[in-house]
Amino acid sequence: MSSAILRIEGVAKTFPGRGAPVGALDRTDFVIGRGEFVTLVGPSGCGKSTLLNLVSGLIAPSEGAIWYDDRRITGVNRQIGYVTQQDNLFPWRTLRDNVAFPLELAGVPPRERHAEAGRWIRRVGLEGFENAYPYELSGGMRQRANIIRTLIYEPPVILMDEPFGPLDAQTRISLQALLLSIWESQRSTVLFVTHDLTKAIGLADRVVDERATGPHGSGRHRQDTAPARYIFHPSESRIPGTARFNLEGARCANP
Amino acid sequence: MTALPTESEQSKIDSPSPVAGFGAKLRAFANTALGINAGRIVLAGTFLAVWQFGANRLFDPFFFGTPLAVFEQLITEVTSADFYRDLGVTAIEMAGGFGIGASSGIFLGVLLARWAYVASVVDPFLLALNSIPRIALAPMLIVWFGIDMASKVFLGATLVFFITFFNTLAGIRSVERALCDVARVQGASDWQIFTKVMLPSASTWIMTGIKMSLPFALVGVIIGEFLVSTHGLGYRLNAYSTSYNTVGAISMIIIMVILMMVLTAVVDHVEARLMRWRPARDPEPIARA
Q1: Which member of A23, B41, B97, B164 lies 3.0 to 4.6 Å from B157 by CB, making a disulfide possible if both were Cys?
Q2: What band does B140 get if pLDDT is binned at 50, 70 and 90?
Q3: Across the interface, which of B178, B200, B203 has its CB nearest the CB of A84?
Q4: Domains plus CATH for chain A?
């Protein structure tokens, strides 16, 4: 149950820059267990989004490898969902057709996928807006749609890149609560990225600060095998503007 | 009417006084749809009146006709079988030129947008081809395709092609990468990304190309008919003007204007239906003046 679903081994990413390559993510290792809700906290520009792009398979690492369930990730795959910071809804599709899009890609017949999309739309309180186009929805409504269109096809791993970033505090809190209740019922693995520590605390029941406790000092005493929620900080930063995520704590907690 | 108010006019608007009551009411009326239409009727009426009553006084009606003579000529035209045969010929040529030009422009635009190497190779040649003054090409097209409808169809098509082609190319190239990534993560194949993301996203541009190119289909056809033809509105216009029948020529120009306005209205209607997902456009600037 608590076996590793994602293993990130010695992953680093550099982009070609003017002259010397620009480091976007320094060598990173960590393991995420099945069903965990892991929150990564780090300042803007420290490589969090790069890390998610790597895990999703949209970009390839310069060094190291990422494993999903002991298979190496070489490109995008439907096992790993990705909720981006911008809602990126298709402006020419109605709310229902945006939410049903992943099912449409998989060849689910219209009646079934519309019914399924309708259930998710009701679940996040957007009923009555099924036929609205994205420009007719508020930022909070669009972001709810953005989240459920990933949840609808139930990928075992869901990556989230500050999905509540542009929202006001009240909307954010209600969406966080919603997200946690869905996570508890769906039992997917979530890797959630934010630059805002208070946001992270709102989502996780335990904060692991690598800088304060050292890489091995945090989760050792935890005996639980049930999925847990963690927050991790980048442990050090060797290249200015980048960070190294050292997430040994996850390994200690869920051997 | 659309000019910005001068400073003195502005101050009058800002500080209404009992003396400015009528002016303020007039300005309020001008901003309503009725007021705008009233302005249009006044403008058109003044133009027609000067034209009608200026004949023989301000200018020689031999060169400019009169509105009443043109109106009578229009009635004669729309009740004659010859006119409808010529209208039909021009309509078919236009439809052919537009259809061939737009479909090949969209097809090649999509193809080259996906095929970056070929696009870079042919780019200067396409610019050169598009720089040919199309009227210079017209005699060659008549040599190649004969004096019948085919040469006019192709002249219209060469004009329509480049407009739709460059718009489609730009449309596919400006598709947001993030939208393609979202679809890919959700499991879309390359073909699905193309049909379900790139084409709908580029549809705004393609629609603009279609709207911009439509009048050029008529331009190409009319130029072709001017040079050599036995039928068509352009032939008719040419026949009238070379025999100094100015009233007949003006009536043909009015027919062409009406034809173009009807077609534009149809395309606007189709666009409004297809582009419901876009936010409503800003109100016409004239309504805000």
Answers
A1: B97
A2: confident
A3: B178
A4: 4-79+155-253 (3.40.50.300)
pLDDT for position A238: 34
Instruction: Give the rounded percent of residues in chain B with a pLDDT score beyond 90.
Output: 51
CA of A21 vs chain B CAs: smallest distance (Å): 23
Asked whether the beta carbons of residue B186 and residue A86 sit closer than 8 angstroms, the reply is no
Q: List, in order of start, the domains of chain B with CATH numbers.
A: 7-65 (no CATH), 73-282 (1.10.3720.10)
- Cβ atoms within 10 A of the Cβ of A228, count? 20
Q: Please report which residue ranges of chain B form alpha helices under DSSP H.
A: 7-14, 21-30, 33-54, 61-64, 67-78, 81-114, 116-131, 134-145, 149-173, 177-185, 190-193, 199-227, 233-242, 246-274, 285-288
Three-state SS for chain A is: CCCEEEEEEEEEEEECCCCCCEEEEEEEEEEEECCCEEEEECCCCCCHHHHHHHHHCCCCCCEEEEEECCEECCCCCCCEEEECCCCCCCCCCCHHHHHHHHHHHCCCCHHHHHHHHHHHHHHCCCCCCCCCCHHHCCHHHHHHHHHHHHHCCCCCEEEEECCCCCCCHHHHHHHHHHHHHHHHHHCCEEEEEECCHHHHHHHCCCCCCHHHHCCCCCHHHCCCCCCCEEEECEEECCCCCCCEEEEHHHHHHCC
B82 interface with A at CB cutoff 8 Å: no
Nearest to A84 among B182, B189, B279 (CB): B182
- Mean pLDDT along residues A140-163: 89
Note whether A39 and A231 are within 8 A (CB). Answer: yes
Name the pairing type of β-strands A4-15 and A22-33. Answer: antiparallel
Alpha carbon of residue A173 to chain centroid: 17
Is the Cβ of B188 closer than 8 Å to some Cβ of chain A?
yes
Chosen for mutation from A58, A98, A105, A159 (greatest number of chain B CBs closer than 10 Å) is: A105
* Measured CA distances, A90 to A99, B40, B197, B252 (Å): 10, 41, 8, 46
A105 to B183: CB separation less than 8 angstroms, yes or no:
yes
Q: Residues A101, B186: contact at Cβ < 8 Å?
A: yes
Amino acid at B23: G
Residue-wise pLDDT for A199-222, tens only, equals: 666 665 444 433 322 333 333 323
**Which residues in A lie closer than 8 A to residue B184 (C-beta atoms)?**
58, 76
**B187-219 confidence digits (pLDDT tens):** 999 899 999 999 999 999 999 999 999 999 999
**pTM for the full predicted model:** 0.75
From A130, A62, A135, select the one nearest A98 (Cα to Cα).
A130
Q: Which of B180, B185, B198, B281 is best to mutate for the A interface (most A CBs within 10 A)? A: B185
